[in-house]
Design brief:
homodimer, alpha/beta, Alkaline Phosphatase, subunit A, Alpha-Beta Plaits, 2 domains, eight-stranded mixed sheet, 19% strand
């Protein structure tokens, strides 16, 4: 969909929309039973909701393509993930709640070990403690870039984030990690002319870091990967003319919501905390993105039973959302994470849209198999937002 | 899908993919019984396979558009048939296993009869014997083009293929067949400036052919139609990073596979021969395109019972493919050929994808009606290949 078209149709209203993203929602049948996680779980509230919803399957990037968390959520938010790539450096920064601003260039950093000749002997510096990482990052903050602010934040163990902030920077840079031992780190190269100046700043930073870390073996050098620029996305609340809030216990999903301009609400560490936040902030916003992480974690662990349990925990909290009587409630996810795959999958993700105007279909159970024959069909994820807007009576007619 | 995107996601693996194309697979209910060919046939192996597959319907070109064999197969191979047209001359050359190379210009030729004034009296030269066609083609091979090699191959009866090979040739040429009796053949005209030189070469060829055939009535002249250039397609094995083989008893399908860069395996004249070839070559390739012709032939003949029998013969051979335990097995076709239409049809074609990770749907019978509610939905044929790649775990994740 053309976002400018949607922008032209959006109008203010008093209706409320809740979009629940169950991370890694979709699954696959376990061979022993022939039933998927959703088909195995006791999820009476989800099934009852599906029975009065329009159901379907969402595909986030393209047929057969497994979405990362970035593209998966951008799709849910109504953006074409192929037109708005989000790179690894930006995602790493979002993952630690780093407040990126448009134009920032972010990279993933590793502390590593080099020998007397400068050749890499350990790409992860023996996985130093996070405490040490914090201290070393503090030391690197002494370095000042010429023509760009350098921001350094520890992540975990040997990992940190480097952000360059300033005018006219570019993330079109090669990586310094040769992905091999016994060779020295590579200098950064500009991948196009517009990135030349940024390459110089980064190489100066690396040279200074080498000096500052000289005596800190095993963490006596750094590697930088996944440079990219914070994408300038059309802003979600402006496209849809509403006040949009994100509730997510995990930083990366807060970051993705911030990237599109949602207001990120302070919440606790559990999903019950998220529901409580939703309840308290109910009057202050029109649209709520509510993120549930446990389904993905269990799926990535290949733990079928844990994913079933995670679905059941979500189901138990669902009445707390229903009690708020949103005008439109959507439940779906950012990608599949089938337990038998123990990884993100390409399989389209069940979706339901409940509203007074959603229409009826044959689906009365919220499973992959049932949703395949729902009224929404198999639809690109970015088509969900316009459907939610319509169900909230927040779109005017197109044409006379 | 953008093929460069897919190329970037493809990674090597040891998994095996088999794509069976049942030519003209889809059908329509016979009015007497209300059942289609697939619904009438006893095809227990296909039904059992459908029950453990993701099913759907493939649409090869667009809604209501009946695909020829070229576009139908290009769609199956993952190409958008509208972006990669294959013309009649090229298809005629592929149909006789002619080894076209990129840049070749091919045309369909007819021997015809002209009177003393050079006016056409029979556009097909009384359908001369194939033997005579072979002899006359040998004679035409005496002609040498200025700046292009001229290759002439008999097809059948009055039909032959002309191929021009050389630098800077163009197939943007008008036809010489006036499609009417009583007028002389038309000279070839260049349809754009880049084709001027090719037009001169072709007109010189025609003039020489007229002289050489002067005394051979009824085959005393030629007509040329359907000029076009062999399209330069992105190569299938390079896009998907695998070794791809084609097994087809009929030359046109070998030709189409060769056009996209598949290795064409030597096989016999029956489908049993094809299965035997598949078995013998199993370890040497990663992807196998296996073509089954009988369904289309029966459909084109308008012979409902023969098409039912052809489906049953395929079903009887299916265990031979299953015994090889491909990681991914897809069964579909290049277009429908409903017996009651006695021609190619626009109706979308049943498709199934069986793999460990294909997911479940409600479909337990491989018919047009059942596949309509499958998990794959109604999908453009070119989306099948990415789905097969994903199921073979040959695609990496898109984005972080």
């Amino acid at each position: 969909m053309d976002l400018d078209l949607l922008r032209g149709l959006a109008q203010p209203s008093t209706t409320k929309i809740v979009l629940c993203s169950l991370d890694g929602l979709g699954g696959l049948p376990r061979p022993e039973t022939g039933k998927s996680e959703l088909e195995t779980a006791r999820i009476p509230h989800l099934h009852a909701l599906a029975a009065r919803s329009a159901c379907g399957l969402l595909r986030h990037v393209g047929p057969g393509i497994t979405p990362g968390s970035g593209p998966g959520h951008l799709g849910l938010f109504g953006y074409d993930p192929l037109r708005h790539p989000v790179g690894r450096g930006v995602l790493e920064a979002l993952g630690i709640d780093f407040p990126l601003t448009p134009g920032d260039v972010a990279a993933r950093g590793n502390f590593c070990t080099v020998d007397g000749e400068g050749r890499i002997t350990d790409r992860r510096a023996g996985r130093i403690s996070t405490d040490l990482c914090v201290k070393l990052c503090e030391r690197l903050r002494q370095i000042h870039g010429e023509g760009a602010e350098l921001l350094i934040e520890p992540v975990k163990e040997h990992r940190f984030v480097l952000v360059l902030r300033g005018q006219g920077l570019s993330g079109h840079l090669s990586e310094t990690d040769p992905q091999a031992l016994g060779t020295p780190p590579l200098p950064v190269r500009a991948l196009d002319a517009a990135a030349e100046r940024t390459a110089v700043i980064v190489n100066q930073f690396i040279a200074r870091a080498r000096e500052l870390l000289r005596d800190d073996a095993p963490a006596n050098m750094i590697l930088l990967r996944g440079f990219d620029t914070q994408p300038a996305l059309p802003l979600f609340p402006e496209i849809y003319s509403f006040r949009a809030a994100a509730i997510a216990a995990y930083p990366m999903y807060r970051g993705l919501a911030r990237l599109v301009g949602m207001e990120v609400l302070k919440t606790g560490t559990t999903f019950a905390d998220e529901i409580e936040t939703l309840r308290k902030q109910w009057t202050a916003h029109d649209f709520f993105f509510v993120h549930y992480k446990d389904t993905d974690k269990a799926g990535e662990d290949g733990d079928f039973d844990a994913k079933v349990a995670a679905l059941e925990r979500f189901d138990a909290e669902l009445p707390g959302i229903l009690a708020l009587e949103p005008d439109v409630l959507a439940v779906s996810g950012d990608h599949s994470t089938p337990s038998i795959l123990a990884a993100h999958g390409w399989q389209p993700v069940p979706a339901l849209v409940a509203s007074r105007y959603c229409g009826a279909d044959q689906v009365s159970r919220f499973t992959e198999r049932d949703c395949a024959s729902g009224a929404l069909g198999v639809l690109p994820a970015q088509e969900l937002m316009p459907i939610l807007m319509a169900n909230a009576l927040r779109f005017i007619k197109y044409g006379a």
